[in-house]
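lol forgot to send this yesterday, sorry. struct tokens for the thing we talked abt
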């Protein structure tokens, strides 16, 4: 869909009382991104002309921090129709199709959004299209009642439905595509003569029918798509549904997941082809992985780029600013942050590499750390191509180990090491004959004396 006279109103006034949180409900995260951002991004992808978020005075500033779209206030909150009516000034002069969406439904797809607009613009020019779904258990959802011609006759809330209407399996998702030329004509007729004294958006179906305007239903075949998040339990369920989508998409794109249910993706994870991912791997935001990479079990990766043919893990942690070059290897219990490892570089055991550049083919021995922070500032460590860093070396930044240089195991390196030189910093080894035996005898005698005294 190209820009074609479509606007969207996202209802996001709920303060998330059942979430038991100071954070607005729609800003709780699914796979690392606030829920409402999923809708905004999808609407942007299909080139929606205008997006308006309707929220409460309390939440306006917080939502504006996460969004560049227009935010308007519903005050006081008098129902869903009243909420859409709050966007009237923002949509002044707009006569295209208006999508009414909910900020707590992050799984709604672009395809369904497009289909709703297409149906609204289709045969007989209906005033509005309502999104429906058929869950395994309809529960207390509102029911969509169709007429003999397949049009939408009315929406009945469960509490107001009769026995026959409650048997209907087609439920109301609340999401609509409405003809903008008629939207506010409908909204301005909605009354609050109900038990809650609120203005319900669902009432516009009956109003449209009374004017002789048709209404239609578009049914999604995936109930997860319209899952609303109203609690921490719902948040977990939406996360699970999103992760299922991501895992399926990854495998269909040529990625091997050895234990799919234990791999967790971020909303923006990018993975090349022929990548193998082991069990219990977690991706945070900002991860890009090239082709033929192997990520072994129990790795945590965020804000990192991994080039082709690299091997990561098991039990590795790659943090923000990590750039792993082609054919490089990061092994068990290695942590990397704000560092680049060039082609073929290796850090296979028990190391921390931060604020560093590791040259091509360099080898980082077990237990090596870059001491990059002095309590006030962070400094840089440079390790040249082909350098060999001995086990248990501490590299005190700023420092440079030049190409081909070697550091002796157990060294604390505070000065630059020249090309192909050996850098070593060790106290001379001393040996005191018989000392260990004398030590043990003395300690045992003291212990015996204390135990006898205690008797």
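and heres what i got for the seq, position by position
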């Amino acid at each position: 869909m190209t820009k074609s006279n479509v606007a969207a109103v996202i209802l996001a006034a709920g303060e998330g009382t059942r979430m038991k949180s100071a954070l607005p409900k729609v800003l709780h995260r699914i796979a690392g991104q606030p829920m409402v951002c999923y809708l905004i991004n999808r609407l942007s992808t299909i080139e929606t002309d205008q997006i308006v978020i309707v929220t409460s005075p309390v939440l306006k500033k917080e939502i504006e921090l996460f969004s560049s779209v227009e935010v308007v206030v519903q005050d006081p909150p008098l129902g869903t129709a009243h909420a859409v009516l709050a966007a009237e000034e923002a949509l002044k002069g707009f006569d295209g199709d208006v999508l009414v969406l909910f900020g707590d439904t992050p799984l709604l797809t672009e395809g369904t959004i497009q289909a709703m607009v297409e149906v609204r613009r289709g045969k007989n020019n209906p005033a509005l299209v309502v999104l429906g779904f058929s869950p395994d258990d309809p529960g207390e959802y509102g029911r969509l009642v169709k007429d003999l011609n397949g049009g939408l006759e009315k929406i009945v809330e469960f509490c107001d439905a009769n026995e026959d209407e409650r048997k209907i399996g087609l439920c109301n998702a609340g999401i609509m595509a409405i003809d903008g030329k008629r939207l506010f004509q409908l909204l301005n007729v909605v009354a609050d003569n109900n038990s809650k004294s609120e203005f319900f958006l669902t009432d516009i179906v009956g109003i449209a029918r009374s004017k002789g305007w048709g209404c239609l239903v578009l049914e999604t075949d995936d109930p997860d798509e319209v899952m609303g998040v109203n609690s921490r339990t719902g948040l977990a369920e939406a996360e699970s549904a999103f992760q299922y989508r991501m895992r399926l998409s990854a495998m269909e794109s040529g990625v091997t997941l050895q234990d799919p249910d234990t791999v967790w993706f971020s909303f923006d994870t990018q993975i090349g082809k022929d990548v193998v991912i082991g069990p219990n791997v977690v991706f945070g935001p900002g991860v890009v992985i090239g082709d033929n990479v192997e990520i072994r079990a129990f790795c945590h990766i965020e804000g990192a780029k991994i080039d082709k043919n690299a091997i990561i893990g098991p039990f590795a942690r790659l943090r923000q600013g990590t750039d792993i070059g082609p054919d490089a290897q990061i092994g068990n219990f290695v942590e990397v942050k704000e560092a680049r490892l060039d082609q073929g570089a290796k850090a296979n055991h028990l190391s921390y590499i931060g604020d560093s550049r590791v040259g091509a083919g360099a080898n980082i021995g077990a237990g090596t750390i870059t001491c990059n922070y002095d309590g006030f500032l962070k400094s840089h460590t440079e390790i040249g191509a082909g350098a060999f860093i001995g086990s248990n070396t501490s590299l005190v930044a700023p420092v440079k180990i030049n190409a081909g240089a070697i550091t002796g195991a157990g060294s604390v390196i505070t000065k630059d090491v020249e090309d192909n030189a050996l850098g070593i910093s060790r106290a001379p080894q001393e040996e005191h004959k018989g000392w260990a035996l004398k030590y043990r005898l003395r300690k045992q005698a003291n212990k015996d004396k204390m135990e006898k005294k205690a008797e």
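Residues 232-252 form the longest helix (21 residues). anyway ping me if u want another try
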